[in-house]
Amino acid sequence: MLITRDILNKALEDKMPLFHDGDYIDDDVLYDLFYAQPILKDLPNGKKALRTLIAKSDRNILCAELKERTKSLKKEFEFEKIYYRVKCKSCGKNFSIYITKSQIINRRFKISNHVNISVHHDRYYLFTPAFKELYSIKFGNSYNMYVCESCIDKFISDSMQKAVDFF
Fold this sequence. Notes:
2 domains, single chain, 167 residues, 8 helices, 4-stranded mixed beta sheet, alpha/beta, 6 strands
């Protein structure tokens, strides 16, 4: 199911679990959960404090069903994925990245962490400063530059071939 802001607001109003394994969220919901500016909240002692747009207690309620399903599982992140669809800037295809219950509750999700190239010595051993520069020229270095894994793999393969041909 695609979760929109209207559905999110209704779930918050009713204090009902909303996120189910395999659901998708739209841009507005992603913004409300992770990127919305903090708001002032009156504390019980009369002071004011900043808090996220959606309080942690509400996030716990929204994820309640996922929490119950994963409570007894040792592999916490295996069965609790909510998806967000992004468009590859290289090939134009849509691809999905997932957000976990823990990331929703603790507000620890950044798109860039999930779509940037990971530098692993065994797989991408050509990630020298010059190779990273080529990547930046090809795909850009902007926060909003999302490239799917197959395009990254193709770029690495092509670059490795060019390096072999060069020598």
